[in-house]
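Memo to structure team: turn this sequence into structure tokens by end of day. - J.P.
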Amino acid sequence: MRQTVLPLALGAVLVSSAHSETLPEFVGETIVVTPTRFPQTLSGQTANTTVITRQDIANNPQTTLPGILAEQAGIGMRDLFGNNAAASTVDMRGFGAAAGQNTLILLDGRRLNDIDLSAVDWAALPLSAIERVEIVRGGSSVLHGSGAVAGVINIITRSPLGLPNQASGRVQAGSFNTQDYQLSGNYSGETGGLRLTADHYRSDGWRDNNENMQSSLNGDARYSHALGELVFKFGGASQDLRLPGPRTVDSSMGLDELETDPRGTSTPLDWAKRRGYQGGLSNRAEFGRNELMLDLDYRTKGQQSYFDYGGYPDYRDADLDMWSFLPRVLLPFETGDITHNLVVGVDFEWWDYTLRTSNAEANIGTPINHVTADQNTTGLYARDEVSLSPATRLALGGRYEWFDLSANDQFDASAPGGGYGSGALPGSQDKTQYALELGINHRLNPQHALFARLARSFRFATVDEIYEYSPTYEREFQFLEPQTSQDAQLGWEWGAGADRLRAAAYYMKVDDEIHLDVYNSGIGNTNLPPLQRYGVELEAHGRVSTVDLSAAYTLAYAKFTEGTLNGVDLDGKDVPLVPRSKLSLGAVWHIDELTRLSADANYVSSQLMDNDETNSFAQRIPAYTLVDLKLVRQSGAWQLSAAVNNLFDEAYYTYAVHSTYNPDRFNAYPLPGRNGWVSVAYTY
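Reply from structure team:
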């Protein structure tokens, strides 16, 4: 039986009051932190930058940030369950299965990507706590180090300063027995402020064995002092998730679970849990024209998971701790008539990782394998933005980074379930890499500007990418070469505010791409042969009468240029999990000052399934089109909302993997059909 929205859901939000206020409008000059790591106006950026504003987020029918990001040019999304973005991945510029380690996700400038390859916990931060999201496309390792190969997504949270003292609550209910409860409060005075946001989400999920329960608390405390501002940000989140596993299709056996039982599960005993906490202290100080930023952050995470594997169980308990210290200075100066804004900084990051494995949760006290690893990086960088004239801005920068990783594996053959295991010999790796950047922005006139950029970026292999099986099925640490990329992009932008266009073309050459091979036992992970990625990205925004319109189109190519993999020639082969075309259309109709109706349509073309680097399988992930609607009505201090997602009940999935040994067999993760929700919010 299909889930639909309550018949009266859309009508309910039209109820109004004689004393209704208008819907909140979000105004003010947008600043961008990501490209320079210091506040800066968006105009004149040498990077290919897009900002998703708080108003954009409020209008969007999507309830998760990955869903909103997937509507932007050059960005895709893979979702396994369609349940609050659990285990979802954002892919910038077509990195496919390796997207999670090539697109750097930041929260207020601090990295969220972890060395254990787990997905970013997108639900740990409610959308209402986000001020804006900054997207920088293209290699950005000069300022951000390892992992910023495809680009950077920086999530900027709301500051309590400048906001009214108020408290608000929100209740949301939707399909699949989904409930979401949220409380937030804001207090600010002349010299300081505090903002708190708490959220609790639970859902049965569209699939069997896909219950999800998530809770989070986030805070932002600020104090303005004589030289600048002191900021303390803190938070914690928990997630309990049941794992339904894939649906299997095997034409040689007449098996098609996607058709006969898309909502079923073959893994009714599998589950995963995660708990995480973080705290960060920032101090900004101005000394004349110079500015100093000091960021000290700590983050810790514990994860447990259980996979039954048809009676061969695997239980894992992992802990991760991360410290970072990120000092940097902004030094403006002049050479004749030319002005400079020089940023110099050092990034220190320290990671401690522990993994224990067993055949049952009760036996984890005597683990089969006890893996420990320390990963540390130190990056020294400098970047100068040079105003050659009022119309022309040049940026050039460089970075040198030191990386060291040491790992150890204690194996206990006498532990329960350890009779057939093995342990890896201790190992270590020390590497260095460098990044470069050269960019220019030239404004032809007040309406038109051209931008161009060259960059060299890199990333190092992380702990989960080196702990694998040897060809003789023995555990070992397989240290890989650093991955490097060289990319170029050229673009044009027109207009500002509600009416604007942006077009960009890019080319990227990647060497030694780090490839996680979990499907070919005994083969291990590897550095891939050379690849190239190139394409075109288009964005358009405009307003016609009372309707705001937007469009984003991506044409993307990702191909191998030479080499072999497992004895197969890869020259000219397409990279799996990269759709050739993607189109997003959006409209926001301001029906009146109290009511807005939003509509989005998103098309994604077909793509190769994971594990098909040889392009030899006939089956592909089919193309799909999704349409979503959202209606919002303000009534005094109350705000009523309703949405329908996947309006036309499209059967689709965004991830599938082919069998290595059977060309007729693949596993896919189907996503929800038509579903919806209603919410009520009150602000006091």
